Amino acid sequence: MDISGVLGTIVKAYDVRGRYPEELDERVARRIGAGFAKWLLTTASTNEIIIGGDMRPSTPAIIEAFAEGAQEQGADAIVAGLSSTDQLYFASGHYGLPGVMVTASHNPAAYNGLKLCRAYAAPIGEATGLGEITRLAAAELAPAAIAGRRREVDTLQAYADHLHGLVPLDQIRPLRVVVDAANGMAGLTVPAVLGNTPVTVIPMYFELDGTFPNHPADPLNPDNLRDLQAAVREHGADLGLAFDGDADRCFVVDERGEPVSPSVITALIADRELAGNPGAAIVHNVITSQTVPETVTASGGRPVRTKVGHSNMKAAMAAESAIFGGEHSAHYYFREFWNADTGMLAAMHVLAARGATDAPLSHLVAPYAQYSASGEINSEVDDVPAALDRVRAHAASAGASIDELDGITATYADGAWVNVRASNTEPLLRLNVEAPDAERMAQLRDDALTIIRAGVPAA
Fold this sequence. Notes:
The chain is α/β, with parallel strands linked by helices. It folds into 3 domains: about 150 residues, Alpha-D-Glucose-1,6-Bisphosphate, Chain A, domain 3 (3-Layer(aba) Sandwich); about 220 residues, Alpha-D-Glucose-1,6-Bisphosphate, Chain A, domain 3; about 80 residues, Alpha-D-phosphohexomutase, C-terminal domain (TATA-Binding Protein), CATH 3.30.310. Helices cover about 35% and strands about 20% of the residues. The strands form 4 sheets. It has a 6-stranded mixed β-sheet, sandwiched between helices. β18 and β19 form a beta hairpin. α2 crosses α3, α2 crosses α5 and α9 runs parallel beside α10. About 50% of the residues are buried. This is Phosphomannomutase/phosphoglucomutase. Belongs to the phosphohexose mutase family. Pfam families: PGM_PMM_I, PGM_PMM_II, PGM_PMM_III, PGM_PMM_IV. Keywords: Isomerase, Magnesium, Metal-binding, Phosphoprotein.
């Protein structure tokens, strides 16, 4: 496949993701590095790019190829080496430089990818530069008259110090916490951040291994939380934390080993942030729990609802001068972190909240856990627009109010809601349902699935 064809396959709406080496290899990384540098040199006031990467076996080669491509176009490559994604965002903000993170996040070991950002961790997506970078990467760019230089920098301690300046943990009561790093980058960052605190970390799978020998690094899948849940119960821990492969997302389980919804964590952190920033805006997406806007309003804040996805969240954070934002997928965004997402800072908020009380975490989060949710359910359909039309018509006939900020959200008189969104890349519809109780949620979920899958044979 020629370079244009490869780029057409691996460049997504918000990042680059593909199999190594069949799709994303050194040749492609070099071309994207050149395209990124050329774009920056015509749109930004710097010729420096900071580059970090995860623990996948292919990452060092992709970092070097990307750096070489950028240097060919006259940009200086500052290589930060092993980093979590939020550590790379920290570096971008701390140094005021554009950056790239080499990672495929929670994808299987055969994949790798690139997350690009402008200075101060500002997102780059298809509509904000990635399309033009792709066009330049596909072109045969002539080398610059003077090649850029390469140097290395270590950002881990500065990253840890910055986080401790935002959420100090030195005065909390001692806690025992099981952390499942899933052989990902949290195995590097957790010891650096929590090592000299009253938190005793019981480590699971801290060895950096991009082949993921223990379980996939995707804690959104409940199957991948089972080891952590069992370990929390076995050790009598105060709570458990699970990070994904690039450690930008963090999931929480309570002292019973029960998962705590990311919406509940969003509400908890929103309460904490609003205590010091009364009246501030808090951003949430269309499929976070109703507990989030209710909590924000009750705490004197201003809830701002936006579309799903980190580019949408970051744009809303900036536009509204929001102090904090949270998504159902356990991405948490902080104004004091350049509006970027950081699972580690969210985890520190949870630890600080738990460490300020003798009450168990399950009691601490109970006021925020008042609703029953379906979780995201995907359905493959032949005709996405027709399926959405069926959902819209059914909801209207049942007296629901409908908005189409992101897909179709039908809200009922009892506060229950159903959201159906189309995938950007596949013939899928994604269903999320929330209701005041489990029975009502199940009824709405099953009705919606029947309507969405009309005419689709049962699996």
